[in-house]
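Translate structure to sequence.
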């Protein structure tokens, strides 16, 4: 319970920091982007990469400081690495990881037009499951301005 509260507090802190950046005249509009596994399945681990070179801006933060949060309801530990224009995401279950669910939410700093799902190329790198041979279907389920 305390771990989940800490994860939620960290997520709220990230949003507050991003809102501060979004009011800075030098920054563009900040968008929350949800990356989701769309199919129904249980997975033990998941790794994917996102190329956003076609998007009008960047996912904030560099390296392990990527402006992203792993979904606290996912029951997973995550690792994120952002090297513009590529984001690497890896999660491993701490208990059952049941999908469909958002895996990670990232915060995108737009330098012009609003980003759209087609600006992002998602590549499944690796995955594991004890219950299915069907690979995860990764999508962008939501893009919303903050």
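Result:
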């Amino acid at each position: 319970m305390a771990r989940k509260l800490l994860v939620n507090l960290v997520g709220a802190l990230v949003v507050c920091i991003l809102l501060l950046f979004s009011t800075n005249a030098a920054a563009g509009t900040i968008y929350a982007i949800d990356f989701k596994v769309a199919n129904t399945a249980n997975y033990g681990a998941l790794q994917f990469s996102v190329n956003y070179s076609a998007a009008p801006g960047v996912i904030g933060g560099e390296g392990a400081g990527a402006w992203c949060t792993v979904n606290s309801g996912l029951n997973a530990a995550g690792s994120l690495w952002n090297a513009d224009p590529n984001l690497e995401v890896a999660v491993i279950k701490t208990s059952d990881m049941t999908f469909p669910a958002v895996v990670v939410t990232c915060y995108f700093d737009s330098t012009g037009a609003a980003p759209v799902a087609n600006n992002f190329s998602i590549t499944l790198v690796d995955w594991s499951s004890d219950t299915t041979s069907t690979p995860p279907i990764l999508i962008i389920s939501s893009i919303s301005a903050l």
